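For consistency, the fold was encoded as tokens, which produced the following:
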Amino acid sequence: MRYHPDTQTWSGSATDLANHARCAHLTQRNRLEAREIAEGRAERVEEASLVMEKGKAHEAAYVAARRAAGVELQTQVWLEAGSLRGYADLLERGVSGAWEPHEIKYARSVRPEHLLQALAYADALQRRDGALPEHVHVVDGHGTAHPYRTSTYFDYYRTARDAFEAALALDLDAELARVPDKVAHCDACPFAALCASRREDADHLSLVAWMRHEQIAKLAAAGIATLTQLAQTELAHVHGIGRATLDRLKTQARLQLAARTLPAPDTPIEYRRPADDEQPDRGFALLPEPDPDDLFFDFEGYPFHEAGGLEYLWGW
């Protein structure tokens, strides 16, 4: 993400487009960071991690293999498509003679956001060369190139691009004042701790265990915006949420609200068998009686091994 002080506008990369698809709030955080860097109030920190190192090595190896195969190609080509700007990993001559983008990823499987990035470069090539490439390609971590017909997915890309560009024009202060929803990308986001703190301070509904994003919206429409409000509500019906589901969420919220005022236990949690009316044939109740010789066993994996990843590492 880049901020342009002369026009007070932002531009982003294909990665920023993919990140917006993962989390719209992340785009606003990146806008703030880009502005602070441009104004000299912060420094750009280049990401350095094992995943990044492995990804660069994988990209270099794939490009070397394609060159050795005699393929006509270009690497790290600067392309622009409106507010989207950046370097394409690889362009190869297609069957039609036009350049086609290859997005090289270290991930073992192709994800929708990878395709978005490749399509952004296809958009840029269309603006530069006057024609949309027939195919875009995503190369996975195994070195396999997956071709996609550009015309099939371009409307999907255009919708995502327009949403991203609209987000760049929103009032930044107002967007940052919003409490961000919890999304799957939180697990890998550098702003995860900050956003989690915001949700805690706001008593956000996402703090309720098993709460789903669409349920938060339906509860908010019914005037319930916090965990405490859900725990204390006497509403028996919320449009779009089944009665049993609503009762379960209310019970969960009450448990979590009550737990906030309980003193921390000074002894391990005791094991007890559930009563007959507590569904004894589900969940932890299916475990055998505890024994001093119990062994807790865990499977792990190491995806960065040179052989292409190791699975089922044993540990306890």
Observations:
- Residues 211 and 249 are 7 Å apart (CA to CA).
- The longest strand covers residues 84-93.
- The first helix runs from residue 14 to 22.
- The chain has ten helices and nine strands.
